[in-house]
Predict the 3D structure of the following.
Amino acid sequence: MSAPSTTPRSAVANSVWPRLEPLLPQIAKPIQYVGGELGAVVKDWDTAAVRWALMYPDAYEVGLPNQGVQILYEVLNEQPDVLAERTYAVWPDLERLMRTHQVPQFTIDAHRPVRDFDVFGISFATELGYTNLLTAIDLAGIPLLAADRSDADPVVVAGGHAAFNPEPIAAFVDAAVLGDGEEAVLEITTIVREWKAEGSPGGRDELLLRLARTESVYVPRFYDVDYLPDGRIQRVVPNRPDVPFRVHKRTTMDLDAWPYPKKPLVPLAETVHERYAVEIFRGCTRGCRFCQAGMITRPVRERSITTVGQMVREGLEFSGFHEVGLLSLSSADHSEIGDMCSGLAQQYEGTNVSLSLPSTRVDAFNIDLAQELARNGRRTGLTFAPEGGSERIRKVINKMVSKEDLIRTVVTAYTNGWRQVKLYFMCGLPTETDEDVLEIAAMAHEVIRAGRAATGSRDIRCTVSIGGFVPKPHTPFQWAAMARPEVIDNRLRLLKQAVNADRSLGRAIGFRYHDGEPSLIEGLLSRGDRRVSAVIRRVWENGGRFDGWSEHFSYQRWVEAAAEVLPDFGVDLDWYTTRERDELEVLPWDHLDSGLDKDWLWQDWQDALGEYEQDDCRWTPCFDCGVCPAMDTEIQIGPTGRKLLPLTPVNGLRVPSDAKQ
Amino acid sequence: MAYSQGFTPHPKISYASAAPTGVASEAEYLEIGLRESVDPAALRAALDAALSPGLDVLDAVVATGGSLVDRIEAAHWRIELPEVDPDVLRAAVAAFTAAGEVFVERMTKQGRRTFDARAAVIDINVIMSDETPSEAVAVPCAILELVVRQVTPAVRPDDVLSGLRVVADLEPPVSPRVTRLAQGMLTAQGAIADPLDAGRDGAVIGGR
Ligand code: B12
Ligand code: SF4
């Protein structure tokens, strides 16, 4: 038998693989630590001038599909002298063994120790990854506190949405980047490359200073925070000359020039999403007042229909995925969403390729879109997010959806063959009363009643899903008080009773909610300041891991840790969460510039309390939120008027030319 | 790739006696259904390119009548036992071979089961090896080779190791390294024949 030669794992000098491999049979799902996925890249260590380890601080199954990391991984690896590898959070079973056998945090690409890299970049979509950051740093053998690190340690950089207030992790990270990463990572790379080429003058301190001077990399150690006797912040000021007073967010303009990921990673183990996701635009100016993502990613920048078409074609060809996710903060708002969906549906008719729109606003959804999405016979779930139960509360949060619109749209979905829709709401919003929440029950009842009438069938269902509201930095609700967990839990109990008050309708309605407790901790972490790092550390030392997972999250552990460490600072958990801030309070993130004008945000907060709505600047005149002039950016939207052309189907086998490097 | 019919179509793929998790293998076999005929060599190359390093597709043949499962009667395993004295292992193997039945326990999907690990073992030998095992380590290492008949419930290498524990208290200090070397039809001589041989050149193609 003449078998083709096998491709052994390339011998990597600094690989921990020989020590890791014997541990793998002893743990759950070892495949997640093996690496070598289609799309993965392994480069030569010695010839790389700058080496990045990129982390999504959650398990492989959640982290691998993450777009942010995939994009940065590809952008960096396209540079000939740059090497980027990925690492994810290891589960406690492996963590235990790694500690016993002294295996450090490793990348899954070439199983290199994270500490060997120049830069360790972590992507925070949510604050719930903070304890996992500590595990990774500690397993890597990097000192937990940034202040204790030496020139032998990588520069630990946080990015992603949560990095817009990195103060709670300021003690653990060396730097943070606000906003889009495509250009930021290249700029950081250039600085590191030059500094290394010069022989690393001035050591770590000099490198961090050079990064800080860009005005778009925040280096917490160069800023001092002073507090007032009552615990509020007095001021945050640079403690070095030529370090900027404010650090500005990055915005990638012209998304057509950045068509990433081109080579999506194809996971080896099961993951939360197995699809090729294409961002069809960034930013959102709908102005939902609770939505940090919408506020911090302004202005809207669309990717053109033709670039999306090309990315889908090449991405599917490369990866073999059968699902395409058209991603954005509100996908139906793309100026050419109709043509895009019908064009793609036509191109892939008769194949196994299905389309999904993960974030779809209820008022923009229409029959055509529903039809296009169902064209291949597959009906992926539909989620509508009215967010607030009553018309009044929807004015407060600026989610301009009328009950009539909602019912009409959901009924459209039912008559087009959907049997099940999901309605998403929040509980604990500013000014919310029991009545606002109880209206959710009335709405759900009406949805089922109207759906039954329109379809003549009793076989329709809706799921009411409720999340706890968490006030976020850089939003008009950054001053708001959170509701106490008891208040939220009581409202949810009343709501459940109201839903089931009508037995017939209630049976068709599923009810899913998170209790108020985890939200309170998210609230602590999202609006926390540097003092909160002591809480995070204590929780981690007491075993806190994987806080995004309800089976691992322990409210008790957080409450206890807060009670242990915060009183020394004269504050407590309530002070950070259920306390309303006043206009003049210095907020922990005031020196971090998202472009939004603080006066405008305050005005929008007052408008919220006055139940006054705000339009969308895409379709109405600019309302001076401040972002475009501050960041020198502009709205970039279509329509381009172009259409997607039919595809000539590619048949036969395909050997990805550069699948392996 | 061909897909099953239905609401959520699945690719047509089936594995024949896949190796347990955490076990190396040089001989795994699977059957896939395709929408159209392709050149097996090109298929092999395409699949191989899509898999990670270390997962290598060595060969592909067109399926002839009969399922793959029917062509897998036995598997040949090698078990490396670092820090185990070969003489101790030899004694344990002798006790195992001498026993008529060796009952072991394992958790299966159906719960805890007790079954005989002896009868399915056709051949069990401690082999002499001058070379050091996989990753060169300077500790003594005993090596066991096994040929096990495919039965239900499957008798796996860890079951045989459990059997050695039962008959001779053999307790490997570090986790054994297990590799499947081959699987296929049992020849009259007790050797294992490649299950793909039936589909290779000269064999009748199609006929379904
Ligand atoms: C797909 C998705 C998911 C998926 C997949 C998550 C994944 N593995 O990536 C799933 C369903 C699992 C999910 C879950 C959750 N999600 Co989600 N999700 C999204 C969604 C729709 C897209 C995310 C995305 O891919 N964006 C595009 C990428 C390119 O952007 P990015 O990751 O931010 O990366 C860019 C920059 O931030 C930066 N960057 C990122 N990392 C780094 C690192 C460094 C070092 C640097 C320099 C730069 C940098 O560069 C990148 C390129 O420019 C967004 C909405 C949206 N459109 O953003 C919500 C969103 C991110 N999710 C959100 C939330 C709240 C959650 C959950 C906490 C929900 C929950 N309560 O359970 C969980 C948390 C999951 C977890 N444990 O991490 C919120 C974030 C909250 C906020 N900041 O206001 C968002 C914004 C939705 C919203 N409007 O509320 N989510
Ligand atoms: S500055 Fe004006 S145009 Fe730009 S995002 Fe704000 S409101 Fe819209």
About this structure: The domain at 17-229 of chain A is CATH 3.40.50.280 (Rossmann fold). The pocket of iron/sulfur cluster (ligand 2) is lined by residues A 285, 298-299, 617, 622-628, 635 (CB under 6 Å). The two ends of chain A are 28 Å apart (CA to CA). Chain A touches chain B at residues 1, 3-4, 6-10, 18, 22, 24-26, 30-31, 34-38, 40, 266, 268, 320, 352, 377-378, 651-656, 659-660 (CB under 8 Å).
